[in-house]
Design goal:
mainly alpha, 5 helices
């Protein structure tokens, strides 16, 4: 077998594998549940800052991009959104107090309170 034939077989196999993994269903059901409640923002600028940097994974207002439909990237994006919403969800503020207090105990940042979320949110510290 010559080198050209081997490269052709490898490229065809890679394309076939790429097409085959598109059939794996994880990451195809992207939903945005309704917003239950949001925090009381200290200012519109605070909400805009958090929306720009955090809402993609930590809210029910995710804007799914075109590449969120292509595996294996779709798997990673769906997993990140699922885990982000489980950890801290700005769209379900009624259950956030318990999550926030767990985070505070874990990170030992007792200076923050759920009601004073304000401008700085250090969720990923």
């Amino acid at each position: 077998m010559n080198f050209r034939k081997l490269v052709l077989i490898l490229v065809a196999g890679a394309i076939g594998l790429f097409l085959l993994i598109q059939l794996i269903p994880f990451g195809h059901t992207r939903t945005n549940p309704p917003v239950v409640s949001e925090p009381q923002w200290s200012s519109p600028e605070a909400r805009a800052l958090v929306k720009e940097h955090c809402f993609q994974c930590h809210s029910n207002e995710t804007n799914w991009t075109w590449y969120a439909n292509i595996a294996p990237g779709s798997w990673l994006i769906a997993y990140d959104v699922i885990k982000g919403r489980e950890e801290f969800n700005f769209s379900d503020w009624t259950t956030i107090a318990a999550t926030w207090m767990r985070w505070l105990k874990r990170s030992r940042r007792a200076t923050c309170r759920p009601s004073s979320i304000g401008f700085f949110i250090r969720v990923h510290a």
